[in-house]
Amino acid sequence: MTTGGRIIGWGTALPDKVLTNDDLSAMMDTNDQWITERTGIKRRHVGGSTSSLSVASAQRAIAMAGVDPSSIDVLVLSTTTPDRTVPATSATVQNALGLRCGAFDVNAACSGFVYAYVIAHGLLSIGAKRALVIGTDTLSRITDWSDRGTAILFADGSGACVVDATADSGQLLGWDLDADGSLEHLLYAEVGGSIHMDGKEVFRRAVRIMVDSAHKSLAKAGLGVDDVALCVPHQANARIIDAACRQLGIPLERTAVVLHETGNTSSASIPLALFDAADRGRLNDGDIVLMVGFGAGMTAASAVVEWRKP
Ligand code: UT7
Q1: What angle do CA 186, 251, 288 make, to 5 degrees?
Q2: Which of 6, 46, 292, 309 has its CA 20 to 30 A from that of 152?
Q3: Residues assigned a catalytic role
């Protein structure tokens, strides 16, 4: 009886087009110093579609895993920016990758990749053998480029992994999924509209809900913050990451940060940071990884993973 899952390959994709803080300063009343000091972001990638970025990251993940695409029996795509309202973007991605399997989208905003990863484990525990989990967003398509309060933050990207069923309990040791819909007015976009955000209020709540969620996952795993070799937080704002890690008691040397290069890519943010750390050799067999995100909804999600080299 299979009960768990294990990542056997991963891939990421960023659009070619780069927007620096100076590029933004030419478009609106802002400047590199303000953006750097208040957010930590220096540049971000924009362009492409959610399906095209998903296909690119997934192809890399499948190639690294060295598996036949036909062996994938479920595809979970986390996105808050689907190509179209109907059908799910996962259908487009499935067809482009040549898969024949169950495929669906998950929208839990910036917590979405962790949601998708946990959902995939649920499916592996009831008989699926191999899952493809993708987190992709193209927030530049729903950004109001005249609003300096949001345009400096959001960007596009994708991260994907192949997760195999295991005969043992696998690498997911603890998880937490949460949402508080009463706070939806803090961060939203109407259908066809652009993002509206109460940045200060999101900031204030983000730190608390990330810390709470991380504690819940660690408690489920029977572990403490000192066991965490690498914390992979949602890449929203360097000050949010600093504050959350300080409250958790995890030093920044044990935290994965890529947002200076990527901006806030929502569903892609955690996989971009996690797989960047893995590609840089920052993860060893048996390391405890804590992924923790928050987002519109207001959602929160965390997962404690025992890293296994594929
Ligand atoms: O995935 C979840 C997504 N959302 C988030 O994580 C957002 C969380 N919030 C944030 O990251 C921050 O609240 C922001 C980066 C959005 C804003 O930073 P802040 O430190 O909260 O700035 P603020 O809104 O309080 O603005 C401070 C000042 C204001 O000027 P005054 O009133 O002090 O004269 C703003 O008008 O900075 C001004 N300002 C800017 N100046 C230059 C606001 N945006 C900009 C800008 N460039 N882009």
Answers
A1: 90
A2: 292
A3: 110, 234, 264
Mean pLDDT of the chain: 97
According to the model, what pLDDT value does residue 2 have? 62
Nearest residue (CA) to ligand 1, atom 8: 203
Domain boundary among 111, 132, 166: 166
54 shares its domain with 159: yes
pLDDT level of residue 3 (50, 70, 90 thresholds) = confident
pTM of the model: 0.97
Ligand 1 lining (C-beta closer than 6 Å): 30, 34, 38-39, 110, 148-149, 152, 197, 199-200, 202-203, 206, 236-237, 240, 264, 295
Task: Kindly state whether residues 57 and 140 are assigned to the same domain.
Answer: yes
Full DSSP string of 184-233: GGGEE--TT---EE-HHHHHHHHHHHHHHHHHHHHHHHT--GGGEEEEEE
Residue 47: give the domain boundaries: 4-166
Q: What percent of the chain has pLDDT over 90?
A: 98
